[in-house]
Amino acid sequence: MSSTTQPASAETAAPSAGRPAPAEPGKLTFVAPRRAKPPRHLADLAPAERRAAVAELGEKPFRAQQLSRHYFTRLVDDPAQMTDLPAAVREHLAAELLPTLLTEVRALDCDGGATRKTLWRAFDGTLIESVLMRYPDRITMCVSSQAGCGMNCPFCATGQAGLTRNLSTGEIVEQVVAGARALARGKIAGGPGRISNIVFMGMGEPLANYKAVLGAIRRITDPAPDGLGISQRSVTVSTVGLVPAIARLADEGLSVRLAVSLHAPDDELRDELVPVNTRWKVREVLDAAWAYADRTGRRVSIEYALIRDVNDQAWRADLLGRLLKGHLVHVNLIPLNPTPGSKWTASRPRDEREFVARLQAHGVPVTVRDTRGREIDGACGQLAAATD
Q: Is 380 a catalytic residue?
């Protein structure tokens, strides 16, 4: 989807920092400010489109696969290393199809170097963040799909920053490729390795940038050399509950996991914590999630940030358990991570334990998420792309 120029329906675009545009009754639309587009990149294009693009540049179409192999498989970022291409050709093709999309501003490490948050600057000065997390059994990359976020959830630093713009497919994919390069070159503690899991849980609402995110999923999961070759089953797409977009994703024939950021089981509280709930209520969101699970056979994750004395009461745990029991679902409880100026904090340990016990009593699988990256403001809800 174009990042900037036209009004778009709520299932494909998030609110900008501007105001809603006039809309048909029952249809929520927003106008984003007009901006320049990121330069075209190989990762924006499907394999057939790459061949066509190379031909348009006056080169032989098979050069597209050579470029793909360098970018997705060999993780090359220096045209001089593309020695199977004639020098003049490689410079021309690299300039046109492998432009620099993201420039590293700063990288912060914690967990003995096993967690790295990177601040990136895009071509237009836009700032975004991604997080790489190395565990004993997997390496996960948390990527951003937007610069900022228009969902306005009050406990999330990204949401409070507002939406700057959507990212292009290439900008999303480049976060993963950059992480893969760092691993391959031994820059992450633990030595060389490969990314195994992708979570669209960084900055932004992924389903509000639907077309670009779908393209990124394709590039990430297409077999090498057309893509990175990561299993679709190892990709998780998070959403606050854009119901039409969930239904659309279910029809794509993918096997990615859906994660729903619910945070409250009742509409009264969720209207406050997740403002898009005023458009699509809890029951509608969960019905869309169950339809997704039925269509794909994938278990849905319910993300629930535990906030002291706000949404962590035992009766809310029971209500959540009743809503979820009997479905293909798993609950991730997230101790609220601190953000600057927030009036809220994480639940007391005893309340967290009681919440877990109540869900388990309803037969609902539940885990408490590791707060990986909290020390570097890289955990859930903390990404704000600040330079200071």
A: yes
pTM of this structure: 0.87
Q: Provide the residue range defining the domain that includes 92.
A: 44-97
Residue 22 has pLDDT above 50, yes or no: no
Domain count, the chain: 2
Domain match, 77 and 194 both: no
CATH code for the domain in which residue 51 is found: 1.10.150.530
The answer on 169 and 66 residing in a single domain is: no
DSSP states along 27-48:
--EE-PPP-PPPPP-GGGS-HH
Nearest to 175, CA basis, from 215, 129, 223: 129
Residues 147 and 80 in one domain: no
Active site residue 171: no
Is 163 found in the same domain as 90? no
Query: What letter does residue 283 receive in the DSSP assignment?
Result: H
State the Cα–Cα distance between residues 336 and 344, nearest whole angstrom: 8
The residue ranking higher by pLDDT, 67 or 380, is: 67
Q: Calculate mean pLDDT across residues 73-79.
A: 94
In a 13 Å sphere around the CA of 302, the CA atoms on its Cβ side amount to 28
Out of 129, 171, 174, 303, which one is annotated catalytic? 129
Same domain, 214 and 72: no
Q: Which of 217, 242, 247 is nearest to 232 (CA)?
A: 217
Is the domain of 92 the same as that of 109? Answer: no
Ramachandran category for residue 263: left, alpha or beta (phi over 0 → left; psi -120 to 50 → alpha)? left
Q: What is the DSSP string of 230-267?
A: --GGGEEEEES--HHHHHHHHTTT--PEEEEE---SSH
Catalytic position from the list 142, 149, 156, 380:
380
CA-to-CA distance for 55 and 35, rounded, in angstroms? Answer: 29
